[in-house]
Amino acid sequence: MQAVVDTSTLEARYRPRAQRDGIALCLSGGGFRAALFHAGGIRRLNELGLLSQVRTVSSVSGGSIAAGLLASVWPRLTADGRIFTNLDELFERPLRVFCARNIRNWPLLWGRLDPRNWPRLLSPTFSATDLLVAEYQRLVGTLRLADLPESPRFVLCAANLQTGVNFELSARSIGDYVLGHGPPGDFTLAEAIAASSSFPFTFPPLVRNVDVNAFSGGDSHAPATGFRPASRIALTDGGVYDNMGLEPAWKTHAVVLVSDGGTPFRILARVRTWLVPRLLRSFQVIANQALAVRKRWLIAAYLRGVYRGAYWGLGTDRDEYQALGAARPLGYSGPVLDRLRVVRTDLDRFLPGEQAVLINHGWALAGAAMTRWAADLIAPSAPERPPDPSLLDSDAALAALAESDRFRLLGH
Description:
By secondary structure, the chain is of the alpha/beta class. It contains twelve helices and twelve strands. The longest helix is centred in the last third of the chain and has 30 residues, at 275-304.
């Protein structure tokens, strides 16, 4: 006899529609490329009167660079109705200045060679990722997590290598569903950004001593038998667990907006089969299938009405958002989109033209996605002012992206 599943209980646990409220904005990983892409999306959401209505901003890796800066300036943003009038001055311009610097080489190369850092690098709780923290302090200063605004709630996501799940860092608390959650203490915003963006093939995890005895609400059934939490946590790139930053949003919010600046999966006609390329390609395939499952689950939840919202991804063609009989959306397709899909994802500097194309792309896709799938949420007479209209031209955009796919050890 087939067992009867109490679907009402499952619905109440996993998608309690009656309890859902608020808008969540999820910003994916992808290095400086993602941060700039998200800047364009954030700009468009502000023009549409939505940014000021967001209740939660969840971010991963490169998305945490943009989210961290936005969190640090949020109290100084001034609104005219639902639109912030100084977002460009306080957020977009400083982000572009920051992304015009190479912040990768000092932590990984020159900082390690500096004798002044050698005693600290011998410590089990200090590494190149702590040198990366110092780079992020140039962007957000020494602001503590506890000093971030209560609303919206900014949640920066890392992956806890100890428990293997999403580790959330916010003004309210730090922790995960296995360990539970505790107060953020003196944890700084720069540390949270570094933990969230410490790509494991490049940076070691951020290691910190924490008082796990002060954590509460953990899942006692999740750990293996005999598990005893250590006093140290080792946090790596949040994209290892969830590269779209969905975890803090999907269970509780009525509207889930996802800006995905992650790397689209590349199909290769020929692959190298010796050890290192083979393992790297295998990792890419594993990561892609996990991300594909999350994306399909996200879209399926939209279609079932679990929550409302819109998704826009860096590899998306603008024409996918064109409604029948409507005008073609602004943005990129064809050869420009092909170039955008292979833009590097590291923390090396981006030139002004590269930045402008990425910001244009995020701006255009966010607007097209919202107009196509969530038009009732946006201001009806929102202006449509591209960040850099001259670079909407295909030839100009291709010229700006000519060398954007190249990784250079000593930087661009």
